[in-house]
Amino acid sequence: MVDRLVNSEANARRIAMVENCFGSSGQPLAEQGRVLVGEGVLTKMCRKKPKARQFFLFNDILVYGNIVINKKKYNKQHVIPLEEVKLESLKDEGQYRNGWLICTASKSFAVYAATATEKEEWMAHIEKCIEDLLRKSGKQPPSEHAAVWVPDNEASICMHCKKTQFTVLNRRHHCRKCGSVVCGPCSSKRFVLKGQSEKPLRVCLQCYDELNRERARPPNQPAAPATTTPVKPMGDNAGSGGDSSADDDSDDDDDRPSAEEKHDEGFTSYNGVKNGYGSKVTTV
């Protein structure tokens, strides 16, 4: 009983510290039964370039934000319910290694750890939390997820028409259905995508046609295989040209530190060595 009380008080202090680091810009995180499982810095692949982000794993949510002052101040808080999350490991490619996708119905993105061991720890802990949540709730894992956006510098020309060169005047845009980088004329249509927004969102012409065909299809007729854009890390073949207007990731502002900095900390677990997640972790 004493150990449980001590652990409960320690957990409450840690959650309060996370809340304080986000300040008034973040939402309250303390809830009955919520436990802070661990934390660490990961490189998030943003639209313009990779950025370092502080991640906090709770037993029911994943929280991340921009690093203003390490261990002291974060902003642009994002809270992701773990019941909505699906993970997918990424193969190593060039300098971008130890990565995986975090996919939800509203937003999907890639993150990278500093080492293979850190990647294993993060994925194992997240998967265990998701498994526990789904088992307790009796819910099924989500079947549909938002597309991962292709980074800007992976496309110097429109991925739809293969003709338009991106310049200061010809801006980049992203199809919200497949994640492709497309020009304005090739993404002039909009469609309501359930799970992402109640308002019509920008989609490329190909996805627009596919979505309309799917909407017109009889209910008992199986859907055609979805067209998706292959996901790959950001490479060195940076394209020139302007950035997309009004297509920013909500946490894609320039800030410190940059993602190119080396992570000096791995995944920190608050559950001790015998955490039941099957990986060796740094305990506190």
From TrEMBL:
SMART domains: FYVE, PH. InterPro entries: PH-like_dom_sf (IPR011993), PH_domain (IPR001849), PH_domain-containing_F (IPR051765), PH_Phafin (IPR037871), SOS1_NGEF_PH (IPR055251), Znf_FYVE (IPR000306), Znf_FYVE-rel (IPR017455), Znf_FYVE_PHD (IPR011011). Residues 35-131 form the PH domain. Coiled coil: none annotated. Residues 245-255 have a biased composition (Acidic residues). Keywords: Metal-binding, Zinc, Zinc-finger. Residues 256-266 have a biased composition (Basic and acidic residues). The keyword Zinc-finger applies. Residues 215-284 are annotated as: Disordered. CDD domains: FYVE_PKHF (cd15717), PH_Phafin2-like (cd01218). The keyword Metal-binding applies. SUPFAM superfamilies: FYVE/PHD zinc finger, PH domain-like. It holds the Pfam family SOS1_NGEF_PH. Residues 152-212 form the FYVE-type domain. PROSITE patterns: PH_DOMAIN, ZF_FYVE. This is Pleckstrin homology domain-containing family F member 2. The lineage of its organism: Eukaryota, Metazoa, Ecdysozoa, Arthropoda, Hexapoda.
